[in-house]
Amino acid sequence: MLKITEIFFSLQGETRTVGLPTIFIRLTGCPLRCQYCDTAYAFSGGKNISIDEILKTLLKYNTKYVTVTGGEPLAQKECLLLLTQLCDRGYWVSLETSGAISTVDVDPRVVKIVDIKTPASLESSKNNFENIAYLLPQDQIKFVICDRADYEWSKKIMDQFKLIEKCEVLFSPSYQQLSYADLADWILKDQLSVRFQIQLHKVIWGDVPGK
Fold this sequence. Notes:
The protein contains 5 helices and 9 strands; from the N terminus they run βββαβαβββαβαβα. The protein is of the alpha/beta class.
């Protein structure tokens, strides 16, 4: 059984599959409290659902893309089994994780989207940098950047851990905290080999649950 906040069908708003119709499985609970969190409603509550029930629910949707997110999905140990069973059924599976919990046991078929928390998130002390050793070329590292200090810090972390050599790196402006244009200009001026991204779902629907 897993505690689930919601299962919904939407367009992927971020990462390499942005714009593609995707099923999102949002698990309940998170040990972090980032100041910009847009899913605080997933911190508690939820409903206990078996993996079999989850898999049956997915059959309603015509897509091969599934994203497991939270909260922090890896806070529930059964998440690892869910990820493997999704892969076994032929889904293209991505995992959105805060980077605070070890990803060592995540099925290698899963595309890991691993956050590195910046100082302005107020949770940078929770970063588990050991996860960098478990990155595969298909994976992505994400920095949510709130201000210029975050941007400079992120560049240093990229250099320190040679992240560009390991996988794709995403720079995302914190919603309504940093101008899209400012971050884009900084990236271009410094000629960084990162993918600039915004949250497409918020551009379309605003900051609403289940989208």
